[in-house]
Design goal:
The protein is α+β, with helices and mostly antiparallel strands and about 110 residues long. It has one domain (about 10-40, about 50-105). The chain has helices at about 10-15, 20-40, 50-55, 85-90, 100-105; strands spanning about 55-65, 70-80. It has a two-stranded antiparallel sheet with strand order 1-2. A hairpin with a 5-residue loop joins strand 1 and strand 2. The longest helix is centred in the first third of the chain and has 21 residues, at about 20-40. The radius of gyration is 19 Å and the shape is elongated.
């Protein structure tokens, strides 16, 4: 005898907004953040802001995220004004891809 399953869209929506899912998203974001902090480059002696990039990682969790504002989300971001240049590089500086590598390594 085969098992039957009938999905409830309302139930799936409730699950995606639940505290359980939000807690798991936050846990994964914290793991990604700790990996990003560990692999963040720190400037040398000539850097006017040594360590600022490494110290600027934050995690934000919301229960009303997603495109339609009906999902639990967690966001890892770096608030240093030059974080974009560190991640993607410039004509003179190579890209470090810190957040990309952290997400690949720590998002489990």
């Amino acid at each position: 005898m085969a098992a039957r399953f009938k999905m409830s869209r309302k139930g799936v929506g409730q699950l995606l907004r639940s505290e359980m899912v939000e807690a798991e998203m936050l846990r994964r974001a914290e793991v990604i953040k700790s990996t990003a902090v560990a692999i963040s480059p720190v400037g040398g002696a000539g850097d006017p802001h040594p360590g600022r990039y490494r110290e600027s990682w934050t995690v934000d969790s919301k229960s009303r995220g997603g495109r339609r504002r009906d999902r639990a989300t967690a966001t890892v971001r770096n608030n240093a004004y030059y974080a974009r240049w560190v991640e993607y590089g410039t004509e003179k500086v190579r890209a470090h891809h810190v957040l990309l590598r952290a997400a690949k390594a720590g998002g489990r």
